[in-house]
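Suppose you are handed a protein chain with no further information: no name, no annotation, nothing but its sequence. What can you learn? This example shows the usual starting point.
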Amino acid sequence: MSTVQKAAVTVLGKDQVGIIAKVTAVASEVNANVTDISQSVLDGTFCMAMIIDITEANASIDEIQKKMQEAVPTMVVHVMHEKIFDSMHRI
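A reasonable first move is to predict its three-dimensional structure. Written in structure tokens, the prediction is:
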């Protein structure tokens, strides 16, 4: 049994129709499961944070980020492995 691996995904930019659908479609395409998601629109700016389970993913973190960025090219997309995220916030 493998250890669960997760990644944090953030998406930020001008609000438009279909952002969540496009980003989660990429997650599905690479076999990553969305385990938690939060989104809001602040004065016309779309803000989303999502946790994905990448244990069974068929793409690397860099490939996932590239595909998500291509899916929503006008947005800023970041995908970070939980180990890096945890290390950055352990101070």
